[in-house]
Amino acid sequence: MTAPSHAISYEMSSFKPQRPRNAGVQRLEGLLIDEDINSLRIPRELITIHRLLCSGSYTEVFLGTYHDGQVAVKMLLPETRRSMDHVEALLTEVKIMATMDHPHIVTLVGVAWDVLADICMVSEYMKGGDLRALLASYETESYPHGFDRQKLTIALNVALALTYMHSFQPPVLHANLKSTNILLSAEIEAKISSFGSVNQRPNCTLGGSSGLHRWTAPEVLMGERFDAKADIYSFGVVLSELDQHVLPYSSINGELGQKLTNQSIVLMMVARGELRVEFTSSASGRTRQASSDVHVMNSIDALGTSCVALAPEYRPTAAEVAYNLHKILQQYTNYW
């Protein structure tokens, strides 16, 4: 196929390191010859790019076709394609996804490249878009706050995926869980995608601030060591989005009654334990009646609040979250 007009064309040989050898180059070369990655390599010419679906901090995702089937094609942004660190990050995500086999984790189709600048990760295409877009449409349409069967099922789908990932030894951390990284099928079945590029093992740290956002756990914001409980915190924030539809903390006012719009201030307050997400049963001034029974909402409030506890040791495990959501879903069915 013809590469996009913004593709950079230069051969893999241009990445040959100068002596002394750089550690990053050595890691990249190791990934390129990795058996798992090469076993997933597919011919670049069989992938056709159609239209842009979304853009991230260093990648963009296109709708494409492979063997006449629709796929999602993740590529580096034009400005990051010369960065060996970003090439390595994308290949690392490929390697992580290659080990995943779960109905609620997006399926990896393969990886393709002719030149490193054109490397792309190919995965299943989720026709329902991402959870953030769905919740934004709910807010526009004045869909009731709270939880119904569909929202509870989405939450359970994600919790089951995290349970699977955290069951590995050592656990596989998502490290980038947020509503835009939860994709939906046409039937609104949820699957998680876009794994973070941090070290996927317990007690790691996140260098720099580029990966920090409103779903990030306080210990990560503080630059401390973190483990699977950081994913649980992010899940708790997503749970609040499912409840209220809006971006995290956007409905919370500051001391003077103004909306908190400065992300740096929000993250600082979260890191200090001065700010956390709220749920419908504990929040005041809601303009729409919750769609769920009060008993169900109280159960969700208790679960969500435990997920976003400041101290990681007080947060439940993913398996405990999934168990509780399953009970709440049964509770909802019994009440309705």
From TrEMBL:
Residues 47-329 form the Protein kinase domain. GO terms for molecular function: ATP binding; protein serine/threonine kinase activity. InterPro entries: Kinase-like_dom_sf, Prot_kinase_dom, Ser/Thr_Kinases-Pseudokinases. This is Protein kinase domain-containing protein. It comes from Phytophthora fragariae.
